[in-house]
Amino acid sequence: MNDTLNITKGINALKEQIDAPTAAFFSSCVHCGLCAEACLFYTETNDPKYTPINKVEPLKRVWESEYTLFGRLKKALGLAKPVTDELLAEWEPLIYDGCTLCGRCSMVCPVGNDISTMIRKVREGMVASDHVPEGLVGASTRAVKIGSPMGIRLKALQAQIKHIERDTGLKIPIDVEGADYMALLSSMEIINFPEYIESLAKIFKQANVSWTLSSEAFEATNSGIQIGSSDIARELVQRIVDGAEKLKVKYVISPECGHAFTAIRWDGPNLIGKSYSFKVVHILELLDELQQSGRLKTQGMEDKKLTFHDPCQIVRKGGVEAQPRRLLSQVASQFVEMSDPGKMNWCCGGGGGVSANERADDVRLKAFNRKKSQLEEINVEVLVTACANCRLILEEGLEENNMDMPVVGLSELISEHLLEENAVEGERDE
Amino acid sequence: MELFSNANDFLLWVRGDAFNIALGLFIIGVLVRILEIFLLGRKKDFSEARGTQWGPGLRNIVSRSVVDNGTFKRAPFVVVVGYIWHICFFIVLFLFIPHIELINALLGIQWPGLASQLVDAATVVAMVSLVAMLWHRLTHPVLKFLSTYEDYVVWFVTFLPLLTGYMAFHRMIDPYPLALGLHILSVELLMVIFPFTKLMHAFTLFIARWYTGAMMGRKGIVS
Amino acid sequence: MNKKTLFESLQQQGITRRGFMKYCTALTSLMALPPSMIPMVANALETAKRPSVIWLSFQECTGCAESLLRSHSPTVEGLIFDHISLDYQHTLQVAAGDAAEHAREQAMKEHHGKYLVVVDGSIPLADPGYSTIAGISNLDMLNETIEGAAAVVAVGTCSAFGGLPQAAPNPTGAVSVSSLVKDKPVINVPGCPPIPTVITGVLAHYLTFGSIPELDNLGRPKVFYGQSIHDRCYRRPFYDKGLFAETFDDEGAKKGWCLYRLGCKGPMTYNACATLKWNQQTSWPVESGHGCLGCSEPNFWDAGSFYKALSIPDGDYAKAAGYAVAAGVAVGAAAGFANQKNKANAVSQHTKVTVDDFGENKDK
Ligand code: SF4
Ligand code: SF4
Ligand code: SF4
Ligand code: SF4
């Protein structure tokens, strides 16, 4: 029995989470069931327990019995439904395995409930009562203790940098004080998609961007956000803030990775309780800006039929929707949208920590069927996205379903089409 | 009838004391619920805003009334019947002349009404759509799963005023003071349970939509 | 003299058989009976004895009696009145004082068990002194008089339902006849005043059939009170179309639109005005441009303004709303602040979570 984290703390954490919007949301739900139709975990399993509003039942009970007059009366009379350890144990898989915090339900609810944000709040209670999946505990622990959820240390990054510098002849600046931009990376990019780092180096060189990496704060992802612990998330964000302040940069660049963007761009300042001394931009925002201002020039077009998978945290929760489309229009001649594109896009199934939680593998693969049928509708050859996590999940899902289709990061795609002003024609071939 | 010596006595009570009690409970309940919501407050947001909150919040209040195409295709019944129900209900509530008189007496505002036959037709459609919604709630797996006793109580208490109003209009209950009295009483019942149930959505959905729209606006997402 | 049948008495006045049949036809229609009933009515009248009628006037304004007696031309009402034996009516009779009271006692003795009592006006119970006749309280006189009566006809809303004297605050403690008379049939003929034709129609029914007509649950004869004003109102098509006069002199009023918004209580009022009309069928209130007041209904004086639509509550809802707003704000603020405290408390009890706290990591 764990004595540090327990049900009392869990309920207390839920009490801390409830604010005016939460109260407005619970007051408004009419049990219409539409949110179920928005959630890939319901649509692909047909199991009603995955209905988004059902997932926040523990929070609802706390709200009702703590923050409404009628509910307090019911509680006093012993009529309130209590939040018990058993309840939280039962709900844990719904909260962690059956929700990617994709936010789609929040777009559909007719009374305007932001259910996804409430699910994030429930996770705080789950953490405080120790109802968390093993995978996420591991990731968080590695993030706090090693510096990266995947256990990647600076040495590994340095090795990758060395490789890239050798392969491209480009310099990857590190710990450059006074640079304009400090770029962050996600572990997955370092390990699985180092092309991203290479792309940055190429693009920034052409666009003449003054940038650097930080040896103390290169990891952008935040397992604290995924597991749902503000305390852990704060510690991780603080490292980035410290790193950026130390190097006195004006901007911090969030990598493609969606939840990293949410963590650093939107949640970070609130976790540390103050505004940053720097600005945070998503790499797609920056690329778009560079391209719009003429600093980034591309040449040639992909002529394969391709589509773009909007990472939920970037589009629906991050507000970056037009940028990838403008960028794609520069480098792809046969871009087609999936059904429900942009802010209504369907999640890949692996966000919100689900991909780090092996227990969720089965349901995640089921949920992928949504993406599969979306892709089947349009019959494309290439799938572009802008999140290393999405990319891995998509690759895995496609493979599982025997769909042969390359998944490409948008930043890389852009870097592949950089106009090589001084280059001899033909030097740059695919 | 022991409590009332006759139907007129009953009507008198319903239009008098009972209405005052119902109105009082309704106002107190709604105000308490709304104050409880607002006083919980929101934490100050330190992240750098990409857009404003007010405009998108207000926009979302309107735009949430239209469902996205994909969801419509997945749940056409809820959407279509939901629209029909709400539209007909608003016609009945706000465009029947006797109701306009009531609103004018209470709030001092009025607008033109509709011919009673049209309101009558809307009443029938509203009742049919409510029955259809009940049937759907009892048969659809998600709705069956989500529904609590409160959903059914609210359904019933919402249905009653339509039914009694229809019966009073068509003078199906004798004598008329009894019919009218029952109709008003059923509305009073609705007013009394209103603040304690999901009926509150009629007010709080504006708050909910605004908060969500404001959050989206802040992040630069089109609400 | 009273032993004569109605037919005999008519014959004495030189009315022919043909005239008698005409009279029966009129009477049949007055009672809202089908023409096929005419022979039966004639047969009944040929043998009917002139009944003795004792008319008691309590807390009333004489409007009801006026309504009945002011009709000029020879009418069916008139004929009926000529042919009942009105043995006591203190406003009309020549005799006064002891002589009058004597007449009443005489009639009661002679026709014991057979006479009709007509009452107009309500009975004060708070203090008998509010209304006495020859030193006898209304209550005593009523009890005394109905003792040998065959039936009681409560004419006018005061006597049928309490009427104006009973309106709040009811200083005299006025009550209706039916709330006092439990062991005799009571026929309520409400209206403020009732339509004269209705009064005589009820009397004619008793005269003809020797029984009381079918009554609704307020004791009113269904033939006259079975339908509401609204159901028979000629302005009803405007109501259905949603065309309403909004002031007494607007276009709608001139076009004869429905008077609902001007407070017409026709929808809840059961009376025969819309069909029988008033003043020898000349017109009736709604026709002359004023909404129905609901005068044939209980409590009509207390049912709110005559000029407020029926759908408007008649309590002091503005005051109730005012109190409720104040209470709602107070309770809401108190609850809201309690919630804030509750939440602040939770925040202060927060214990920082570190990764070492997870059971997973502890097991290791
Ligand atoms: S956030 Fe996404 S995954 Fe989670 S409940 Fe909502 S729609 Fe489903
Ligand atoms: S869509 Fe909104 S109102 Fe409908 S059940 Fe879900 S949370 Fe409730
Ligand atoms: S005028 Fe009065 S009785 Fe006539 S239709 Fe209108 S509301 Fe009914
Ligand atoms: S119209 Fe109405 S108020 Fe007027 S006399 Fe007839 S019943 Fe009475």
What is the third-level CATH name, the topology of the largest domain in chain A?
Rossmann fold
Overall number of domains of chain A: 3
Q: Which spans of chain C of ≥5 residues are poorly predicted at pLDDT below 50?
A: none
Most extensive chain interface and residues per partner: A-B, 65 and 59 residues
Termini Cα gap of chain A: 58 Å
Radius of gyration of chain A: 22 Å
Distance between the termini of chain C: 122 Å
What is the count of β-strands of chain A?
Answer: 7
How does the overall form of chain C come out from the CA principal axes? Answer: elongated
The percentage of residues in β strands of chain C lies in: 5-15%
CATH class of the largest domain in chain C: Alpha Beta
Q: Give the biggest beta sheet of chain C.
A: 5 strands, parallel
Mean pLDDT rating of chain A:
93
Written overview of the protein:
The complex is a heterotrimer of chains A (430), B (223) and C (364). In chain A, 53% of the residues lie in helices and 6% in strands. Chain A has 430 residues and is mostly helical. The relative contact order of chain A is 0.12. The model of chain A is unreliable at 423-430 (pLDDT under 50). Chain B has a domain at 7-40 and 85-202: Transmembrane di-heme cytochromes, Chain C (Fumarate Reductase Cytochrome B subunit), CATH 1.20.950. Chain B is built from eleven helices and no strands. Chain B has helices spanning 7-15, 17-40, 54-63, 69-74, 76-95, 97-107, 116-139, 141-146, 149-169, 176-193, 201-219. In chain C, α4 packs across α10. Chain C starts with 5 loop residues before the first helix and ends with a helix. Chains in contact: A-B, A-C, B-C. The interface between A and B is large, with 65 and 59 residues. One iron/sulfur cluster (SF4) binds at residues 229-230, 233, 235-236, 239, 258-260, 264, 266-267, 286, 291-292 of chain C.
